[in-house]
UniProtKB/TrEMBL annotation:
Chain ranges passing through the membrane: 9-30, 103-125, 132-157, 231-253, 273-297
Keywords recorded for this protein, A-Z: Cell membrane, Membrane, Transmembrane, Transmembrane helix, Transport
Family annotation (InterPro entries): BPD_transp_1_N, MetI-like, MetI-like_sf
Name this polypeptide is given: Glutathione transport system permease protein
ABC transmembrane type-1 domain ranges (all copies): 95-292
Protein's cellular compartments: Cell membrane
Membrane topology, as annotated: Multi-pass membrane protein
Cellular component terms per the entry's GO annotation: plasma membrane
Principal location class: membrane
GO biological process, one term: transmembrane transport
Keyword Cell membrane (UniProt): yes
């Protein structure tokens, strides 16, 4: 177990280094000149060149990356081109809002998805099973931004029971969380159902039933533990989808999080801020996947031998 964890930990810096390099290079090929944007449309070419020198954009691209990497290892992601504030402070002010949105959506998706999927498998072909599968297909085929607009129109404009946009109270979190959780809930429910159906048809489950064990013990203790490995994998991988989906959701609901910060930084070609927000998202996804790998190994010790 310890060797497995050490091996995974040694891979983390390599993954983060590769991702940071890819992000850095891709941003340099985004159309538009950040020096021109910062200097203003009325600025002369000399002013633009002075701004480019000030931002360090006139140096070789690999030198720029080396400087960025050296500073990042010291906890310095640079200053925002637009606000001149440290990128770290910009992210810190928005990060709690995004985490609140992601965790609330994650909780909704995991709890409803797993419970409904397991029950649908246990009561296969029942009316409940058909309802769960219908909602799963609907959730997988519904665009996140469209659902958000429909929810805003119904609950805020027509009924007036929930805030339309912004933040400030827990009520502001309800609509964004439900909108963001709809798709992953559908995916987790389908995976939970298919995984449970495969397990409950195994011989050892029939044997457990033949011994007279109760349904709760058979399905929760014997079946669910073996069925949860693919479920946990999907749950872990979907954390990145929630973070990515938060960009659209935060923009629609005017939620002051990392997603809106990323959209604003892209609009102004704010390289340091884009790099910081994307790198943070990648780090979160990599860490969650690392934890998922450890949990799976704890559940199924046979994976350690592989």
């Amino acid at each position: 177990m310890s060797k497995y964890i050490i091996r995974k930990l040694l891979m983390l810096p390599v993954v983060l280094l590769a991702v940071s390099f890819i992000i850095f290079m891709i941003l340099r090929f985004i159309p538009g000149d950040p020096a021109r944007l910062m200097a203003g449309q009325q600025a002369t070419q000399q002013d633009v060149e002075m701004m480019r020198t000030k931002l360090g954009l006139d140096e070789n691209i690999f030198i720029q990356y080396a400087d960025f990497l050296q500073n990042a290892l010291q906890g310095d992601l640079g200053n925002s081109m637009r606000s001149s504030k440290p990128v770290i402070s910009e992210i810190k002010s928005r990060f709690p809002n995004t985490m609140a949105l992601a965790l609330s959506s994650y909780t909704i998706a995991v709890s409803i998805g797993i419970v409904s999927g397991v029950l649908a498998a246990v009561f296969q072909y029942s009316l409940f099973d058909q309802a769960v599968m219908f909602m799963a297909i609907l959730g997988a085929s519904t665009a996140n931004f469209w659902l958000a607009l429909i929810a805003m129109n119904f609950f805020s404009v027509k009924l007036g029971i929930l805030p339309l946009m912004g933040s400030g109270s827990w009520q502001h979190l309800i609509l964004p969380s439900l909108s963001l959780a709809f798709y992953p809930t559908a995916l987790i429910a389908r995976m939970s159902r298919s995984s449970m159906l495969e397990i409950i048809r195994q011989d050892y489950i029939r044997t457990a039933k033949a011994k007279g064990l109760g349904a709760v013990i058979v399905y929760c203790k014997h079946a669910l533990r073996n069925a949860c490995i693919p479920i946990i994998t999907v749950v872990g991988l979907h954390f990145g989808v929630l973070f990515g989906g938060a960009v659209v959701t935060e923009t629609v609901f005017n939620w002051p999080g990392i997603g809106r910060l990323l959209i604003d930084s892209v609009r102004y070609r704010d390289y340091p801020l884009i790099q910081g927000t994307v790198l943070l998202t990648v780090v979160m996804v990599v860490l969650v996947n690392f934890l998922v790998d450890i949990i799976i190994v704890k559940i199924d010790p046979r994976i350690r031998l592989d």
